[in-house]
Amino acid sequence: MRFLDIIEKKKNKLTLSDEEIQFWIDGVTDGTIPDYQTSALLMAIVLNGMDDHETAKLAEAMMNSGHVMDLSSIGGIKADKHSTGGVGDKTSLALGAMVAACGLKVAKMSGRGLGHTGGTLDKLESIRGFNCFLTEDQFKIQVQEIGLAIIGQTGDLVPADKKLYALRDVTATVNSIPLIASSIMSKKLASGANTILLDVKYGEGAFMKTIEDAKILAQAMISIGKRLGRNTIAMITDMDQPLGNTIGNALEVQEAIETVRGKGPKDFTELCMRAGEIMLVQGQLASTKEEARRLLEEAVSSGRAFEKLAQMVQYQGGDLEQIKNTDLLPKAKYVTEIRSREAGYISRIHSMQLGILAMKLGAGRATKSDSINYAVGLKMAVKKGDKVEEGDLLCRVYHDGDLTQDWLEDMYRSFQYSDDKQEPIPIVEAILG
Ligand code: URA
Is 365 a known active-site residue? Predict the structure, then answer.
């Protein structure tokens, strides 16, 4: 097989065979296909697309490019969830504990934050001593024993994706539904869970800016999951404003704890409940969403969801005292209040901008090698649609250094106002699959 012919074929809008896709991914993994040829094929895929069968084959070949986790030694259905990322997205922390408290086995590999979006591992590491890097055996034992483990991706999982993603990043080929869908799903498939819930976010702070694009990406990922025998469902959820009230690692851990204790913000609680309903039905622990909702509410009100979170923290070496008393989590030196300069209904909250402002405080990384300040971040006091008067509190800033005038102006510009009443947007726009 000549790789040049494969590039020609996609350039001419033809469908690649399973063997051609396998040949490509084998060559990417063992380095026999040079980067310039792979880059050419990536661009042809960006321009001419892939059908559902090609996309699923690509995900499968990528999954098999490295180690595939075998969770069959753990009894019952193993569940995973994935968010396409956003601002203030601490869902895995609270949701994992809530569904595990209902008996679901949650085996989750998460990532770090980059740019304006946060990452679950960074949030967990704001708890002193928390270890995100268990061995595969430790991971499986923990899921078996307590039903919940959240760790970083193990070394040899989907090496083809690491190489392809690095090339896509520098060849303007990130933005392609088949490439994004196969990249995300290859990692989910290699993680070994039986059920996958995808939280595909849309809006300013998300990868997909519109509901329509989020639905197209979701359908592509569902199709891959189904073709490869995984029970896969997607939620399309709002990221046009930060999720919950907090942005920043320790602040988000605190909010996740409040949520599993039944005192979380309305939008975030609702997202966790809706996601939990789907996961419990997927995991055959409830036969209807209504039954699942009752189980979840009981797990929260009885304290079992909090206990499950505490148990995971304890198993992974984290400081339990910080979970029981969140005042012990990392604290910023200063708190500055941002107050409205106008009166009106909040018509827009620029979540991407707020994510960038939090990153500039030290809550996130501009480059992969940057270190994180766990204590800093933002606590929002308003949501889209709220009515404010001049001088009302918009947000509290938790910071360790001085806030520059430019930073403050960007903060004020993150809020837009309207004289007209704003319709609230639902946190869950649609459920697909
Ligand atoms: N996240 C991934 O893992 N892969 C992509 O291609 C885009 C987002």
Answer: no
ipTM score of the complex?
A: 0.96
For ligand 1, is residue 183 a contact (CB within 6 Å)?
yes
Whether ligand 1 lies within 6 angstroms of the CB of 180 is answered as yes
Residue nearest to atom 7 of ligand 1 (CA): 180
CA-proximal residue: ligand 1, atom 3 (nearest):
184
Beta carbon of 184 within 6 Å of any ligand 1 atom: yes
Q: Are 329 and 250 in contact (CB under 8 A)?
A: yes
Q: Give 243's contacts (C-beta < 8 A, 6+ positions apart).
A: 86, 87, 88, 89, 90, 91, 267, 268, 271, 427
Selection from 213, 232, 223, 230 nearest residue 182 by Cα: 223
Question: 210 CA to middle of ligand 1, Å?
Answer: 17
pLDDT band at 131 (very low <50, low <70, confident <90, very high): very high
d(Cα 86, Cα 23) in Å, to the nearest integer?
35
> Which residue is catalytic, options 80, 89, 122, 161?
161
Angle at 387 between CA 385 and CA 392, to 5 degrees: 125
Give 252-285 pLDDT, tens digit per residue: 999 999 999 999 999 999 999 999 999 999 999 9
CA atoms within 13 A on the CB side of 242: 35
CA distances from 399 to 150, 335, 396 (A): 28, 6, 10
